[in-house]
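Researcher: Sequence of Potassium transporter follows. Predict its structure.
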Amino acid sequence: MVKIIFIALYANDDGDGGTFALYSLISRYARVALIPNQQAEDDLVSSHRHLSATRRRAQWMKNLLETSKPAKLTLFFLTIFATALAISDCMLTPPISVLSAVNGLRLRAPHLTTDQIVWITVGILILFFAVQHLGTDKIGYTFAPLVVVWLLLIAGIGLYNLIKYDIGTLRAFNPKYIFDYFRRNKKKGWVSLGEILLCFTGTEALFADLGYFSIKSIQLSFSFGLLPSVLLTYIGQAAYLRTHMDMTISNAFFNSIPSTLFWPTFVLALLASVIGSQAMVSCAFATMSHLQTLSCFPRVKILHTSRRYSGQLYIPEVNFFLCVASCIVTISFRTTGFIAKAHEICVALVMVITTLLMTIVMLLVWKVNIWWIAAFFVVFMSTETVYLSAVLYKFTQGPYFPLAMSAVLMVIMIVWHYVHVKRYKYELQHTVSPDEVKHLLERHDLKRVPGLGLFYTELVQGIPPIFPHLIEKIPTVHSVIVFISVKHLPIPHVDVQERFLFRQVEPKESMVFRCVARYGYRDTLEMAGDFVATLVEYLQYYVRDLSLYCTAEPLRTSYPSIRIDSFRWEKKPSGRSGRSGHGHGIHAEEMLTPIQSFSELTMHQVGMSNRLPQFQTAKMNLEEMLRIEEDQKVIQREVDNGVVYILGETEVVAKPHSNLLKKIAVNYIFDFLRKNSRKGEKMLSIPRGQLLKVGITYEI
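Model: Prediction complete. C-alpha cells:
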C-alpha cells in the first residue's frame, strides 16, 4: 500500500504506470534508448516541463546511463524482464481467480469432480475473452457497481464472523506475533512467505493500469474501500478458523459464509473474479501496445474501442493468446494451489524490479534527498528480497512455468529489438550523401511522373540506401517526394502541432522533402487519407515559412513546430549539445500562425525585427507572394494527381561469417517473426491500390 499507492503512482509517465512507463520516464531524462534516433527537437516535446538545473546526483546518474553501455543494457533487460513477467502473470490471474470462485460450488454440490470444476472454469474463461472486443469501458460500466456491492458484502461477512466467533483475533495486529510466528516455525515460517505474498497480489497490475484512472481515485478507493474490506474478510476468516481448527483452509472463505448468503456471495464472487481478470487483461493490452511502439515486439493489430477515453485498447492476437494460455493453465494445473505457486514468482520479481527502477527515478527525475532514497531502497528491497528468496526456494514446485513463458517472451523482445537496432544502424551508416542525392535527382534519364510519392523509412537522418536502389532499377520518381519516418517517442502523447518536422532536400526545385511524424506510445495512427491531408497542410506551412525566413543560419519555426533545422546533414560543432545545438531560432510566440495573412505579417514586421536583430526582416512583395503560392499549388496539384505510398520490403540476414547464435537469431527467429507479424501497410492503413513495395536485402 505504501510503496505502490502513495509513492509509485506519482512516478507515472503522463498518467501511465507500470515498469515500462518507468523506463519511458527515465528515457525522457536520459538518452538510454538503444536505437540512435534521438533528435534535439524531441527534448522540446518531452522535457519542456523540467528545464531546471540538475543536481549533482541526478547528473551523475544521467551520465552513467548515457555513457555506459552495460548500464543501458541492464536497464533495458530489467524492463523487458518485468514486462514479460507481467504478461505471464496475465495468463495466471484469470485461471486462479475464476477457478477459486467456481470451487465454491462444491459446498452445495459435493458430487462435482475436479474435471467438472475445471471444464466449468474453462467455459467461463472462453466467454470472458470472447467479450473483450466490446472494450474495457463497457465491461467496466457493467461490473463496477457489482464490485462495490461485493466489497461491502465481504466486509460485512468478515465483521459478522469476527463478532460471532472470536473478537480476540484483533490481537494479531500486535507486531509481537510476527516474531513469535518465525521463532515458532523457523524455516517453515520463512517458506510460508510465498503464500502470504498472495494476499497483496494485484497491486503491480493496479500500477500498470494507472492509465485508466486518476491517482486520487485509486488512492481513495484503495484506502477507504478495498483495503478495509479485504482486511475485514481475512480477519473474519481467521476468527472462523479459531473455532473450527479441524476445517480445511482451502475453502475457508465459502465455509465461513452464513448459509443464507451463500448463493448471492457465490455469484458476486464469480463476477468479481471476472473483473479482477479484466484488470490483468487490460494491463496486457496496454503493455503490448507500449512494447510495439518502441520496437520491442512484432507488429500486431491494435484497436481503440472507445472514442471518449484514450488508451482503451483491444488486441485480437494478444486476446486469443491469453485465452488459449489461460485454458491450458487451467486444464494442466487443475487446482488453485499449483497455479498460486506459479503466480508467486511473477509478483515477487516484478516488485523487486519496480523498486530498482523507482530508485533510479528518485535519483534522476525527482531529485529528492539522498536519505529518503536510501530509506526507500533499504526498507522495500530488504523486505521484497526476503519474499523473493522464499519463492525461489520452492522453484521446482511450479514457478518454472511463468519463468519459462517469460523467457520465450524475452527472446522474442530481444531478437526483435536487436535486429531493429542493427538494421537502423546499417541504414544510418549507408545514408545517401547530399551530393549523391543531388546527382540522382539531376540525372538526364530520370523521369518525373505526376503525383505525390510518400517514401516510408525508419531513418530520421538522411536519405535511406533503398532510394538509389529504386532509381537504379526503375529511373522514375514522382513530381513531389516526401521521405517519411514515423517515430514513436517515449512519452504518451505528442500534440498534432508538435508532430511534423520537415527538411527540404537540395536542389530545391526538385520538390523533395524529408519529414519525421512523431507519435507518443498512446497516440493512434490516423487512416492513410487523414494522415496525408494533415501532412500536406503542414508541408504547405513549411514551404511558406521556408520562403519567408530563408537565412544562412538554420531557422526553427514553431507553428506547428515545423522546424527547418530538424534534419541537418552537417555534424554539430563539438561542445554544442542539447538545446544549445540549435543555434538561434524563432520561438512559438514569435512566429506566424497558419491563419495569419501576409498583410498581418507586414504589419508586425517591425516588432519582429526588434526582437530578432540577427535576421533580416522579411520583405514581402507581390513576386514573393506569388512564388510561395505557386509552390503550394504545385504540392496540392500533385496530391490531386494521386498519392503513392512507397514501402521498403527489407530482408535482413546475418553476414556469412557471423557466429551461429547470431545466424539463428537473425536468419530464423527474426525471419519467422517478421513473416508472421502484421505488414507495415496494414499498420499504416495504406490502401492496396496505392501501395508500391521496393525490395532490398541488408547484411548485418
